Amino acid sequence: MAYPPQWILDALDDPVYLEDGEGQVVRCNQALLGLLQAESARVVGWPSSQLDIPTGHQAEHRQLSSPSGIPFTWVTLKRELPSIEALQGRAKELEASERQLAELLSRQRTVQQAQRLESVGQLTGGIAHDFNNLLAVITGCLELLKVRAQGNPPVLDLADRALTAAERGAALIQRLLAFSRRQMLSPEPTNVNAMILEMLDLSRRSLAEHIEIETELCDEPWLVLVDPSQLENAILNLVINARDAMPDGGILMISTAKVELDAPDDGLMAGDYLRVTVSDTGTGIGSEHLGRVFEPFYTTKETGRGSGLGLSMVYGFVKQSHGTVRIESEPNRGTTVHLFLPRAGGARSIEPRSLGEQPLGRREVVLVVEDDDAVRSTVVSVLEELDYRVISASSAAEALEILELHASIDLLLTDVVLGGTASGPELAQRAQQGRAGLRVAFMTGYADQHLSQVGRDARVLKKPFRAPELARFLRSALEG
Predict the structure, then answer these.
(1) Is the pLDDT of residue 419 over 80?
(2) How far apart are CA 446 and CA 455, in angstroms?
(3) Residue 28's pLDDT is what?
(4) What pLDDT, on a 0 to 100 scale, did the predictor assign at position 347?
(5) CATH architecture of the domain with range 105-179
(6) What is the DSSP letter of 453?
(7) Cis amide prior to 464 (ω within 30 degrees)
(8) Measured between alpha carbons, how far is 108 from 104 in angstroms, rounded to an integer?
């Protein structure tokens, strides 16, 4: 036998071939054929210099002789081991790829969460609008019942209790509207540091003695353009959540910092923001819950200890104020919530709302435009009780016809969202074009795209409203 038998070569895992003294392949194993992806006839009998050996393999040569004394070369192909530098470079590439994948997954989760919250917000806003109309009817009828039940204490007591329940319902709806970003806001340049310092006493009273509250406020803070009362509610909500997360005590930190963004970043446009941070050293939130904490009615607290609307209200308010909210938390390592609020462009003064007595009308004529029959009839009844003369319409088209026929109308009181071809603001514009100097006021259950048309100086009454609020609102609209 001139060369080792074929079965010995095929039993080897490494690619192997034998070449004679002239450099031709005289035998090879299956591992080599698999590596070259070739048939035996395309390898055996061919010069070894013509073999298309893939890169990354190194040939080891051993000079041998057959039992009959014929010399041949045993060639084994071994994989080349990469250098330390190559391994380090590959490790860096893998690390960069892992970071990119993690960032991509994080952004995907953020987008999915935002889409889910947007869908829930749209549904919530529609439901809240309908409930506001129902509450407007309930509160209006109860107010009328109180007027007509004078001298009947049991009936008055029942009416008062029902009104209290209606007000609690209105507060709940307001929180739903905050989440859906359709609540009525009155933004003004606000000094957040000053607000936090004013809130410290209230915050300390709401915390247990074993919880320490600390502040770290930036120097010369920017004013932010927000509704100050809603921002105060948002911070107080975060403080209460932190308190509930530290039943055994801990540290609550409230801090502010100025943030400048040169490019859009995770839901924020480029620009200047004040970051308000509330953090605690409490129980924290697990990753399985963290992606849902801003959803309305979702809570990690025990049954009966939370409505699930606190964080959703904060989320909706900050988003409606053109900012964003970010949350970080791990079990047993506390929670940190960041509010990014847009810097105000300039200051303006805000006049406080009047809280005077319920003023009566002076027989002025008010045109009430409301497409909900129950709400319209209730508002008409309350206005008549307040000594106004009232004409009503269910649509903008009907209202315009009435305005052409009645020159004595003193005030147009219209809902912002109307059924038909025109909204409340569009009706007001057409009415004032035909009658210069006509006073206009609006009522609405929530903020939507139509409300942006009324202008910052327009008079808007938020539903549901009590009779005293409506009375003061009308006197202000007629006399202002």
Answers:
(1) no
(2) 15
(3) 92
(4) 34
(5) Orthogonal Bundle (1.10)
(6) G
(7) yes
(8) 6
Q: How confident is the model at residue 351 (pLDDT cuts 50, 70, 90)?
A: very low
3 state DSSP class of 19: strand
What residue spans define the domains of the chain?
A: 6-79, 105-179, 188-342, 365-479
Residue type present at position 383 = L
In this structure, are residues 204 and 321 in contact, taking their beta carbons and an 8 Å threshold? no
Distance CA 332, CA 167 (A): 38
Token pair of 443, please? Answer: 């009522």
Cβ-Cβ contacts under 8 Å for 17 (sequence gap 6 or more): 25, 27, 28, 29, 32, 43, 48, 51, 75
Q: How far is CA 463 from the centre of its chain?
A: 25
Is the alpha carbon torsion for 452, 455, 456, 457 positive or negative?
A: negative
Of 325, 321, 311, which is closest to residue 343 (Cα–Cα)?
321
pTM, two decimal places: 0.44
Nearest 5°: phi and psi at 461? -105, 130
> Regarding the domain delimited by 365-479, which CATH topology (the fold level of the hierarchy) does it fall under?
Rossmann fold (3.40.50)
- Taking domain 188-342, whether its CATH number is 3.90.70.10 is answered by no
Q: Do 6 and 44 contact (CB within 8 A), yes or no?
A: no
pLDDT in tens, 270-306: 889 999 999 999 888 887 777 777 776 666 666 545 5
- The CATH classification number of 6-79 equals 3.30.450.20
Q: What ranges make up the beta strands (E) of 351-402? A: 365-369, 389-393
Count of C-beta atoms within a 10 Å radius of residue 464: 25
The whole-angstrom separation of Cα 454 and Cα 183 is: 15
Q: How are beta strands 211-216 and 250-261 bridged, if at all?
A: parallel
Q: Which two three-digit tokens encode residue 75?
A: 């060639």
What are the structure tokens assigned to 224, written together?
């932010």
Q: Which residues contact 462 (CB under 8 A, 6 or more apart)?
A: 184, 443, 444, 445
Tokens of 68: 């009959």
Distance CA 180, CA 446 (A): 10
Place of tokens 């529609």: 126
243 contacts 316 by C-beta, under 8 angstroms:
no
Question: Which among 80, 30, 34, 45 is positioned nearest to 60, based on CA atoms?
Answer: 80
